[in-house]
Give the backbone structure.
Amino acid sequence: MEFSATLGLSQLPYVYPAIVPNKIYPFWPGKRRSSQPTRLHCNKMFVPGFGEASPEAKAAKNIHNFFTFIAVKIVAAQLESYNPEAYEELMEFLDRNSLNDGDKFCANMFRESSRHKNLALRIMEVRSAYCKNDFEWDNMKRLALKMVTESNTRLMRDYISETSPAETEK
């Protein structure tokens, strides 16, 4: 018995859709693709040199690490008043480990000892709570915009005063 892999003409519409006038099929077989790259139309600036992450992603990573720093400060202040022994252990751990990478800091703390594991859990809990409930995101945006505006104005004013003739020469 022979088996045929060819399709009859009555079965073709199930493989290729019926051609509808004025309908665009971007991946239609035989359609020539343009050699021009597709341009995205957006109103945002293109920032070169950030590779895999956007500037916002880089800022978020820095803020994430900053939240770890804040959480360590909060936990240290709490421990200093009611558990001086745990406070000393945290300070000794801080002397040996950098806070530049918050996740690495917490991971190292987990592996130090069971007491340090409890401190790491507390730091992560405070970090999360501070991020969700206490950090004033709108205030940060307002302050950043204000700082950029004031700094730009001051720098332009200083440059103009340095490069323009003095009024006292009259």
In short: The radius of gyration is 31 Å. DSSP finds six helices and no strands in the chain.
